[in-house]
Amino acid sequence: MPSFLAAADKDIAKEAGKILKKQGLDIRVDTKVTNAEVQGDQVVVTSESKGESSEESFDKLIVCVGRRAYSEKLLGDDSGIQLTERGLIDVNDQCKTNLDGVYAIGDLVRGPMLAHKAMEEGMMAVERIHGEKAQVNYDTIINVIYTHPEIAWVGLTEQEAEAAGFEVKTGSFNLAANGRALAQSEAEGSIKVVADAKTDRLLGMHAISAGAGDIVHQGMIAMEFVSSIEDLQLMTFAHPTISEAVHEAALSADGRAIHAIQRKKRKK
Question: Which of 206, 239, 247, 259 is an active site residue?
């Protein structure tokens, strides 16, 4: 890929790159591995970047290039179940296939391959089979990258919100100004909120911090209740906690953060 963590908000991805490189990671973008060969007790890797090829030797090589649904021989040729172009089972928003009474969930269907998404889909499907009206809100599925510090987000990135036509306003807060983060030597990272400037509605929350996966659940709950940035601003967050950074990020969206010098907000 030409950029690091392309799925994440650009500000969070940029900060993540700085933190991980400081930890000693050599992160290379726009680089393609073309060959890997075991030679003695070493792995010789050939890669290509900007038209130039190079070879390097390593003690160990871990290959992680994503996942795909394993649907081979899952269904009989005469099953009648409709598949997508990618070989996934085609389902609607309630995980129902084109055949009555047949549902499919998880990694075999559209959407992110996440355990928590699959579990909720399983419960929705069973409740639907029993005549209930359950529905998974796919707009609030949380993504977590389990690095240290963690990287997590829910909802739209700033770039996605702008592409969707929203007039966007954002707020962010650096953990270097958070008392709890400083006390436990976890002061790297930040919290960012994305909102609709016209309605004040929260559209997304993004974090790189210790426990970021837990932090963004606050954004998920707020989005489920269609909360505004002002709602978060008016809440009282316990001190000292990492969660105070969520409060400060919300205040920052309107240039009102308490423990940070606010830059003049630029119009989108």
Answer: 239
